[in-house]
Amino acid sequence: MTLRKLFLLFSAVNALLGTQAVGEVVSVTVKDRNGHGFLFGDRGQCFIFLPNHVLGRSSRFSFQSSSAPSSVGKAELMQGKVHSMDLAIAEVSDKTFDGCGTDWQTIISWKHPDTIIGRDIQLRQVPNPGQLKEIPMRVNFQTSGEFDARVSEQIGINAVQQGTSGSIAFYDDQAIGMAITASTQWDARFLSLPVILRAVASTLNWSLDPEPTFESDIPPSSTFSSKEREKPRSPDLPIDTYSTTISPTGAFVTEEKE
Predict the structure, then answer these.
(1) Domain residues for 40?
(2) 192, 200 contact by CB (below 8 A)
(3) CA distance 102 to 196
(4) Is the pLDDT of residue 231 over 70?
(5) Residue 238 forms part of a structural domain
(6) pTM of this prediction?
(7) Is pLDDT above 80 for 239?
(8) Is residue 63 part of a domain?
């Protein structure tokens, strides 16, 4: 096989894979405005959550992913200002790719640290179709439903700019929040993912409990006895187990809720 044929074969396979898989962070275009959102789904139903202010008065928008320039779609608003937050949920009405980003069961199985102040995170966005940009940031403030982060490296002017809203913050390769506002070109405020997930579950009437693992799914080599498998798991800690305030001295204080 000639080098030209090998190149053509590789290009064809790469293009095919690009139309079958799409990243969860998507760029959103609403008339003359741009933003971002998070693509997710369950059992073939595809949805996007994004900041409500990005939509304005519009109910329809187009979106593109970071996985391939050809991965495009359209979505329609289901509910805006969910739970009186800057949050909207839209259903995908048309797309040119297979899959729905991140599966719901995967999202609700992620473990969220109670305290993220001082942690380094990555702000992921799609500057152009088929591209993924990561901005290093550090969390410097946190409440039970929101957190603030500041760009941790001088990566250029206007790191946080128009179109950043809806970008997704990742920690340890798991989403932890969505950018909703920016006070300066270096700082952004985020809705925390646990708050978003509760709003999504309430709106779509989905469960926040991962589907159970049946005993038949446990490998035969497992060392657990049948009695141990039957023991109920201890309940998960509630999502909101912390509250961060500012003390009179100006220091951040994180307290665990009773």
Answers:
(1) 3-102
(2) no
(3) 15
(4) no
(5) no
(6) 0.74
(7) no
(8) yes
Rounded CA-CA distance 84/96 in Å is 33
pLDDT digits (tens, 9 = 90+) for 19-73: 334 569 999 999 888 999 999 999 999 999 999 999 999 999 999 988 777 788 9
Tokens of 122: 């990555």
Q: How many domains does the chain have?
A: 1
In whole angstroms, what is the distance from residue 33 CA to residue 56 CA? 9
Distances (CA, A) of 181 to 8, 52, 165, 188, 190: 45, 11, 6, 6, 7
> Cα separation of 173 and 170, whole Å?
6
Residue 51 lies in a domain: yes
H or E segment to which residue 50 belongs: strand 45-50
Beta-carbon contacts of 218 under 8 Å, excluding residues fewer than 6 positions away, are: 224, 229
Report residue 29 as tokens. Answer: 């275009």
How many residues would you count in the chain? 258
Domain assignment present for 240 = no
Q: Could you tell me the CATH number of the domain that includes residue 61?
A: 2.40.10.10
SS (H, E, C) 52-90: HHHHCCCCEEEEEECCCCCCEEEEEEEECCHHHCCCEEE
